[in-house]
Amino acid sequence: MKQTLGLVALLVACTGEVGSPGASAGQLPAGAAGSGAAGGPTSSLDPLNPSNLDASCTVDAPSPRRISRLSTEELLQSFALAGAIDGAKLPAALRPAAIPEAPSSGLAVTRDFHQNADEVATSVAGTYQPSLACDVQEFGTDAVCTKSFLATEGVRLLRGKSDDTLFANLTALAADTARRSGGATALKYTVRGLLLSPASLYMTEGIDGAKSKAGATILSSAELASYLSFRVSGRPPSSELLGALSAISSPSTDQLARIISEEFSSGSAELTARFLSTWLQVAGIQGLSRDTQKHPAADAGFLASLQDETLRAVLGVANDPAANFASLLTKPQQSQLLGDAGSAGYARWGRPGIFTLPGLIAAASAADHTDIPRRGRALLKNLLCETLQSPPPGAAAKEPAQVAGESQRARFERVGQVSGCGGCHARLHPMAFALEAYDELGAARAEDESSNAVDAAAVLDIVGGGTLKFDGPAQLFEAVSQDATAQNCFVLQTYRYVARRDERGSSDACVVKRLAERARVASFQLADLSLSALAETALSPRAD
Amino acid sequence: MRMTTSSRRAFLRTFAGASFASVMLRHFVSTAATGSFPIRFVFVFTHDGRHQTSQHSGTGANFKLGASFEPLEQHRDKLLILDGMKIPDHVNEEHPNGRCAMLTGRPSSEKWTGTGVSIDRFLATALTNGKSVYTGSAAPGGSATLDPEISWHAANIANRSHYTGDKELFKGLFSGVAPASTQAAVPDASAVDATRDNELALNGFLSEEVRRLEKVAPAEEREKMRLHLEALAQLRESIDGAQNPGGGPVLVPPTSCTDPLSVSAVEQVDRSNQIIARALACGQARIVVNNLDAYDPHHEYSHDPDPTSLVALDAVYTKQFANFLGYLQSYPEGDGTLLDNTIVVLSSEVCGSYSGGDDIHGTVNMPLIIAGGKNAGLKNGERIVTGGFWNTELYRGIAQAMGVTDTSGFGDPARPTPLADIFAA
Asked: Using CA atoms, how far apart are residues A355 and A366, in angstroms rounded to an integer?
């Protein structure tokens, strides 16, 4: 209750008068950096306040049961599983671009699934024939042969799920198809049925798991295997992982961590890389739009290279077993693409940590200027889990005209003086002022395009208490890396990624609190945090 | 010197007659050098007419297709648009009389009756022992009250094969035919229905599975299942053959006579067109009159003072024709495709809408497009405004391109010269 009241007060203050120190500890889907002017809490459920995790943990509640559709990458990897047998040749080009990430009622979505599945089934049906318990012409007609196929290949394609009703329905489908078109066609339609069944397309939680004493369910071994494997590697679980998990009735966190490390040779690094890439929205960099009149070289090829450079830096962090939250934010980076080595700006400011990578700076900037509010919003959300409301209607009309030759900082300081704008802008500006050390492409600079010397000094009050004082990006990120609110926010971001949802206030508070305590002991080491978050969320009981 | 219309025409005809021989000589030499694929002929039409007369603009390679022909843009380098062709007028607004004039090149002398052999019958007699293929309207009611055939001749009717709908067509063309050595995979006659039923069965299975998951899903996750079921329902409608094409698996036209024939297109007309393409490619047919019409109330639309519905239908038929050309192009033949060895003519029986008074279903400025036939020496990728040649002359040219040099038994004897404009120099 205390937290809720605090949030309401902050939200009101944020749209209030000049000088109101307002901000909100809100929430957005993980990894929404650079989302621009839009913002504000999007859920009616209370988000957690990273400044005070203790207060929210009153009862260790079960997690909600989720049914999520596979992402495009996961779907295609799952389809590819059908061909993971000797001699199978999958179609050269499935159509990932045609499959949206989110469920949709559009006919195209289902048709794309069907088309991909049809191509896969056509390609692999012949490969399955030698292993059938009957001549292929008898498939479907011979129910024993069909069931035998489902008990082996069916279970494999469904990632370890064995569902009597599903297999009975598939056996009937095979018989029906065989009667019309023969056994070979029946085999192909059976494979399509397997690939397109909801048991294949969706990841479930607690649908067929065992009930706990409290009435909640735990993930079945097949669900657990998918949960782990898709999150760590983006691929369906191997037979080894399925076997290892099915051999243990109720694995502990430590057992799970051991199995993960045994089954995924670079599991923590891959998991961390996936988390960082998603959180920082690295994949969106090449789709940015830059002002090519101002920056003629910033064409599609440049942006693709920018994304590639960012991704390589992320992988470098993820593959460093010693990497922790502090090194993530402070370890020096260098951009070859922007020629840092000979840059006066780089000599002045350097590139402390991942948030100063040109790709991420550009993603949080406008096409033709640094966009201080946008940068500030992205940093607040990613580093302090603060989400501000959108500007009120008519806010843009109040913005004073830009004065020729003035710096962006001077411009937005004047905006902050406008009645009704000061509350949010007081939150948005400070960290973004430090990033004025980089232009909208992310190039380090000692002065801006109007020859104004960059003033990167600012002060930011932390909502939960404390103050960050800094002059330039290095001091900013050093201060943030040591701040407890920022550290807890990073734990929350990790949790959101592995849980694939936003936290649910007090329901998830105890899990997040445990993770934060463990992370603190481990100096917020990235690999340990990712794996422990994965294990905690995987083993948490589920309830509606 | 200013040339009068009549003297100019006479000059052109004389010139055409002289130049035609040399053009055709080059063509035959060329054909002999490229291989032994026969030249096929297909007349494609919609028997209740099109709304508008020719809408195209520009000439030569710089032409612009009319609005209702835009789906043909993808095939523009295979088209020869012939505008300004003259077709004998018919005695009244009756649709069948328009058909008679379209393919016989002669005016109908009385209601629903032609006065000569149609070009398809003429070619069939000369090239295939009289065997030709007709597809008719499968639409129930309405159009069935009218003779669905554009080709009419009192003689030799018994030797034509007339199929209504894709099932009849498939059965007629492929059932009981001993496959040639290159036709190892001709499917049985029930394949069309079976494919559709298989898709429906799969759809039913998947819907049932989604419903099963929906029952055990937590309340806030059920919306995903509902959307999934909605998408499957939409797909099921298109599989049923309603208005939404493409519901089944990807249509991959076969590329040779040894490939399994896929006739899984959702639209019946597309399925028929796939079957026709296969028959042409694999030696089961050489002369085809293909009636695309499958929609009711097309005839009523053609008499509606408000042309909106008829115009919309025109575009649908054009798309189906474009699909047909795509099927023909999917069969490689020599250095080209089946389309290069097939002369496809698209037209109709009448154009314009009739709602009484002086507004009649006419044949003036009838849309007329030739596609393919490159290996028969035809121009491709051009629009020609012919300046008043007759369809009799066009068909004589086509007949000679197919190797029928004596066309005296066809068409209007007063117009004996083949149209040379259609041939590449």
From this structure: 16
